[in-house]
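Supplementary Note 3. Input sequence used for the single-chain structure prediction.
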Amino acid sequence: MKPCAVMWKLLTGFLLAAAGLAPAAAPAASVPAAWDGVWTWTFTMPDGATVKPRLALQVTNQNLTGLISFRPGSETSITEGRVDGDRVTFKVVRERNGRRIETTYRGTLHGAKIIGEMESNWSGGRQVYPWEAVNQATSIEGRWGWGARSVELRLEQNGVLSGTLFLEEGSFPLRHGRYQAGEFTFEAERQKEGRPYTNIFQGRLEEKMLKGAIHRLFDGQTNVNGWEARRVEK
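The predicted structure, written as discrete structure tokens, is reproduced below.
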């Protein structure tokens, strides 16, 4: 670059800065949208009851808002929600038998999981419990439906994939279930004309859909058909 061009560039930058017209600084990094969505986990209450809480989160800048429910119809807004990088904290306040029940959640984002702890005075004194929530968008657990309304699939992931297939003629437990890296396989067997009729489901979880194929085994023959199921919202 010629000396005069260099001088002109420096002079232009100086004049712009003096006039307050210098290029704007890069905007602050926004909080990743990975926090947004519905999170679920399994929790054993101090009274021995097992529940599956549901937490819907939304982040705007560093401010965290959301609703939590331990049972259908028990939605409560979270308070003091805050996101700091990969860490999150918020509180849930309820009334129980005239007592103020306050629970504080603290966790760290690990991919599609939040791993941390919850501290509560539910049983009187303050107790700390482990907390591990899974983003429902990446969780295969829940209710899935397709075709006729009477057809439904309910899946659970507790180490192994299990669940029940509900059809017009009855309900059938799943077996040989496996879910890993977004891919699943499981099968259900029922009777047809007095002989075993096996359906093997294979595919991938994509957002709110299961996409894949059903392998139907009957009387020594195998038929394969494409299959899609949508998550049944609670």
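The radius of gyration is 26 Å. DSSP finds one helix and 19 strands in the chain.
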